Amino acid sequence: MSTEKQKIVLATGNKGKVKEFERLLENFPYEVVPQSAFDLTDADETGTTFVENAIIKARHAAKLTGLAAIADDSGLAVDALGGEPGVYSSRYAGNDASDQQNVDKLLQALANVAEENRTARFLCVIVFMQSAEDPTPIICQGEWHGHISQVRRGEKGFGYDPVFWVSSQNQTAAQLPAEVKNRLSHRGKAMAKLLDCLSDKLGLMD
Ligand SMILES: O=c1nc[nH]c2c1ncn2[C@H]1C[C@H](O)[C@@H](COP(=O)(O)OP(=O)(O)OP(=O)(O)O)O1
Ligand SMILES: [Mg+2]
């Protein structure tokens, strides 16, 4: 019998996510291959929820590769902005906005908001689909609470990390070592739940 692990595609075009998933998936019962290895087009994120967009991305990658797929849809919800940019976090400053432009726009939007009202949370939905037709995808979520700082700090991570202040660590997310971010983050928490659900589903618990 072959002991080779089943291949699975990681349906994201975001290199920062790929790096985090490489660590998070160390004990995963599949061989995970990023979508860049397949030259996939990006899926159209037409959903209005993280759940819909994560399913769209996973289904798209599963359809084009014929493999099982994992996708992550995530974003930043800022209380003083009524939850924006939310599902639209990667397009906050425009359709092809860079992380830098998105962070600039966020700092501008919060320019007159006092320290105590700059609360925010990162949200992440991870979807696992056995195939593009899987009628019961596994859907797991995680949240990470913090504050939006006035200035950028740190070079690690990606996206809004340089302005996401984590008070328990007295640092921004971009200053945290990768293993610490993975332990605390919305993505780390969602992934831990996914591992639990998959273990149940695949009977890998014992
Ligand atoms: O841990 C994080 N640290 C900092 N920023 C983060 C994080 N997690 C999500 N974010 C931000 C980045 C982006 O502005 C949006 C995700 O958008 P989202 O559509 O899910 O990802 P994406 O377009 O970068 O790549 P893809 O859709 O191919 O997975 O939220
Ligand atoms: Mg996206």
Query: What value does the average pLDDT take?
Result: 95
- CATH structural fold name: Maf protein
Largest sheet: 7 strands, mixed
Hetero ligands: 2'-deoxyinosine 5'-triphosphate, magnesium ion
**Number of helices, where a helix is a run of at least 4 consecutive DSSP H or I residues:** 5
Quick one: CATH class?
Alpha Beta
* Total strand segments: 7
Helix content: 25-40%
Protein name: dITP/XTP pyrophosphatase
GO molecular function: dITP diphosphatase activity; ITP diphosphatase activity; metal ion binding; nucleotide binding; ribonucleoside triphosphate phosphatase activity; XTP diphosphatase activity
Pfam families: Ham1p_like
EC number: 3.6.1.66
